From TrEMBL:
UniProt-annotated catalytic positions: 98 (electrophile), 170 (proton acceptor)
Annotated EC: 5.3.1.1
One Gene Ontology MF term: triose-phosphate isomerase activity
Reaction catalysis annotation: D-glyceraldehyde 3-phosphate = dihydroxyacetone phosphate
Residues that, per the record, bind substrate: 9-11, 176, 216, 237-238
Keyword presence, Transferase: no
Protein name, UniProt field: Triosephosphate isomerase
Function of the molecule: Involved in the gluconeogenesis. Catalyzes stereospecifically the conversion of dihydroxyacetone phosphate (DHAP) to D-glyceraldehyde-3-phosphate (G3P).
Cited Pfam families: TIM
Locations listed in the record: Cytoplasm
Stated family: Belongs to the triosephosphate isomerase family.
Organism domain of life: Bacteria
Native source organism of the sequence: Mucilaginibacter achroorhodeus
Length: 254
């Protein structure tokens, strides 16, 4: 049975103290809640990871993730951070293939396939992001784009390895824009992804894969999005920077 998850992506926001204080608020607010997402993941800048992991110790519901990891195990890559280093400070997730990494840092499906392998080899669970641009959607290419991102980014994995991934459908036109995909648009793509996974890995793997929606998700639209049969939670950017908004999204499951 797949898990529902709400993951926050802080991006390059919050200094060290601001991050710790926001995370402490989030921890307090989700601590005693029996309802809502089964797992809450906070994906912070690298500088926060160790401290957040320490604070989250003993809380079985809250996990920590990074927002990127290098494809190499280690070496002369000045300024980069490896999957092994991320894992060593207590993080368990890593976002890979976020559209900002694809757009501003030239990350291709081929590079992301390598990053996925290295993350998995070091015990990190990738939150693998896929999604089309506005231009691609308007050209009717969205299904093909998503299929190619899956084929080139993750389909080299065998079923056991694939089962460790979380997928996030993030239409690029909805990220940070205030324009959310309608629940029908999001559900249509999530159902398509699950159908693709069933064809590749079989129905059981498809049914067990958590597929998050991301793109201007907030406390207001989350309940309707999360009520869709193939939407298993959210990857939250802007709204993850406010403890009340984020925890309201965590609770937005029926
Ligand atoms: C994101 O960056 O993954 C994201 C979904 O951002 P936002 O919620 O701000 O649109």
């Amino acid at each position: 049975m797949r898990k529902n998850i709400v993951a926050g992506n802080w991006k390059m926001n919050l200094d060290y103290n601001e991050g710790l204080s926001l995370f402490s608020e989030v921890l307090n607010m989700v601590k005693d809640e029996a309802t809502g997402a089964q797992e809450v993941v906070v994906c912070s800048p690298f500088i926060h990871l160790h401290s957040l992991a320490q604070l989250a110790k003993g809380n079985g519901r809250v996990s920590i993730g990074a927002q990127n990891a290098h494809q190499a195990e280690s070496g002369a890559y000045t300024g980069e951070v490896s999957a092994k280093q991320i894992k060593s400070v207590g993080a368990t997730y890593v976002i890979l293939g976020h559209s900002e990494r694809r757009q501003y840092f030239g990350e291709t499906n081929q590079l992301l396939a390598q990053k996925t392998d290295t993350a998995l080899a070091n015990g990190l669970k990738p939150i693998f992001c896929i999604g089309e641009t506005l231009q691609e959607r308007e050209a009717g290419q969205h299904f093909n784009i998503i299929k190619t991102q899956l084929e080139e980014g993750v389909y080299h994995l065998d079923a056991d390895k694939f089962a460790q991934l979380v997928l996030a459908y993030e239409p690029v036109w909805a990220i940070g824009t205030g324009v959310t995909a309608t629940s029908e648009q999001a559900q249509e793509i999530h159902a398509f992804i699950r159908q693709e996974l069933a064809a590749k890995y079989g129905q059981q793997v498809a049914d067990d894969t958590t597929i998050l929606y991301g793109g201007s998700c907030n406390a207001k639209n989350a309940p309707e999005l999360f009520a869709q049969p193939d939407i298993d939670g959210g990857l939250i950017g802007g709204a993850s920077l406010k403890s009340r908004d984020f925890t309201d999204i965590v609770k937005a499951f029926n």
